[in-house]
Design brief:
The protein has one domain: Rossmann fold, CATH 3.40.50. β9, α6 and β10 form a beta-alpha-beta unit. With 288 residues, it is an alpha/beta fold. α1 crosses α7 and α5 packs across α6. It is 32% helix and 16% strand. It starts with 7 loop residues before the first strand and ends with a helix. The strands form 4 sheets. A 3-stranded parallel beta sheet has the order 1-2-3, with helices on one face. The protein has a 3-stranded antiparallel beta sheet with strand order 4-5-8. The protein has a two-stranded antiparallel sheet with strand order 6-7.
Length: 288
Amino acid sequence: MTEALPPRGRFAPSPTGPLHAGSLAAALASYFLVKSRHGQWLVRVEDLDPPREIPGMAERQIQQLADFGLFSDLPVVYQSQRHALYEQALTRLLAEDKAFYCSCTRTQLADSNGIHRHCIAPLDKTHAAVRLRVPDIECRFHDGLQGAQVQALAGDVGDFVLKRADGLYAYQLAVVLDDALQGITQVVRGADLLDSTARQIFLQQQLGLPTPEYWHIDLVLDEAGQKLAKSQGHDALNDSMRLQELQRALRHLRQDPEVLDSGLSMAENLARALHAFDVNRLLSASAP
């Protein structure tokens, strides 16, 4: 009999800008859910795209988390240091004919809305992406907050990129491998990533990896109803109003902000919020 993995969650920001209210809500949701199950909470830096990253931002994000009492239970992992692991997986998928080289560009795929079903450009291995073969199947899964989900992979996604033509590894490959290699049992993140989940589950199946639980929380929006963006500095968490930022995040997660005390440290307030965490109130946030 295979022994069940202990609960393990993670928060995995990309260093493209400082954390904002939506980042804090996602970090807290992942922290509360795994800690309420007596599990471990990890931090992973998703620094896969150097052109979009800001020097020193990963360290700033880790400090922002620490300012709220949020610390990784294991050493922080940086995806930029894990390229050899991603290349090993690619080599295996190519050898098993589950992936293939492709020189099709976005412009060439524009008529199919960017969905790749067969190559329409001659192969040039000096400038080619690696794509995963996607059959005409449906992927069904249950999200802890968003409920039953189904995606027709071929029509909605197509053969998706695992390694870009410029040599950078794709998010879909790295996140699947790192979640498995780190023993992540529950993935808690923003609802903007819900659409990526089906293809990640399919890739897990192709690699023989376990599928964690998925929980996608509703996004924190700005006054115009738009998603907050780390690349916009004005959305950054306010260092002089940490208690208010924590209260705002708790309200977004349908938790009680009144458990916080301005006379306590952020670490003490985080402990109070964890003790009062009620998963049923979180579930009510996505109820119809």
